[in-house]
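Holo prediction. Input below; ligand is nicotinamide-adenine-dinucleotide.
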Amino acid sequence: MSNRFEDKVVIITGAGSGLGQASALQVAKEGAKLSLVDLNNEGLEKTKKLILESVPNADLLLITADVSKEEDVKNYVKQTVDKFGKIDGFFNNAGIEGKQNLTEDYGSDEFSKVVSINLNGVFYGMKYVLEIMKNQGFGSIVNTASVGGIRGVGNQSGYAASKHGVVGLTRNSGIEYGQFGVSIKAIAPGAIMTPMVEGSLKQMNPDNWEEVGKQFVEPNPMKRFGKPEEVGYLVAFLLSDQANFINATVIPIDGGQSYKY
Ligand code: NAD
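Structure of the complex:
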C-alpha cells in the first residue's frame, strides 16, 4: 500500500458521508492523521468506524461543526493545529444540493442557505487554513465544486451560483498562494452515487427514483454513476505532494459528462 500520507495531517469537511467519507478512508489507508469535520455527528462516528476497520491505529480527531459559521470553521482549524501541529492537506468539501426549482420559484431563503454552506463555508475554510499553510510554506487544498460549477444544469440556482463561486475562489487564490508553496485546486464531480445524489433523484421522482437514476446516466458517455471511492483516489492524489504543481485549476471527474451535454 502507498504511504503518501505518512506523517501528514489532513482536514476533511463533510467527512460523515459520501465523497468526504470515501476520501477520508483512502488517505487514512495511506497513513494520514485526520481531522474529520461534519455537522452530523452520527456520520462522523460511522466514518471513524469504517476507517478503524481497515486502519486500527489511525489517528483521528472528530469535530462537529457547521461550515457556514465562521466561528466553527476557525475552531476546527485551531483544534487541528493544537492537536497535530500543522496542516498538510485540506479537502474543503462539505456541501448540500438544495431544493430543485425554477429560478423564479427557487426562494431567496433557499438561495442564501445553499450559498452560505457551499460557498461561504469554502471561503471560511480557505481563509483560516491558508493562513497556516502560508506560514508553513507548504500545503494542498482541494475544494469540491461540481459539473454544476462549470456548466448549466437547470433548476439549481443556488447550487450553480455557489459551485461556480468555488471555481472562482480556487482560480483566484491559487494565483495568490502558489508563491508560498501552497497549491489550490477544485474537483468537479459529475453524478457520483452518494446520499446527496439519492436525495436528488428522490426529488425528481420519490416513488421510482432508481429508474430515474438509470435514465439520468443514459446520456453519460460511461452510462453509469461514479463511485465515491473513485473520487477518493483522485482527492488523495491531489492532496499528495505528487500533485503540488497542479494549481488554480478544476479537475472534472464525471465520465465525460461535462463535454457531452
Ligand atoms: P453527502 O450528502 O453524502 O455528504 C455531504 C456531507 O456534508 C454530509 O455528511 C453532511 O452532513 C455534511 N454537511 C452538510 N452541510 C454541512 C454544514 N453546514 N457543515 C458541515 N457539514 C455539512 O454528499 P456528497 O455527494 O458526498 O457531497 C459532497 C460534496 O460533493 C458536496 O459539496 C457536493 O455538492 C459535491 N458534489 C457531489 C456530487 C455527487 O454526485 N455526489 C457531484 C458534484 C459535487
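The mean pLDDT is 97. That is the main takeaway for now.
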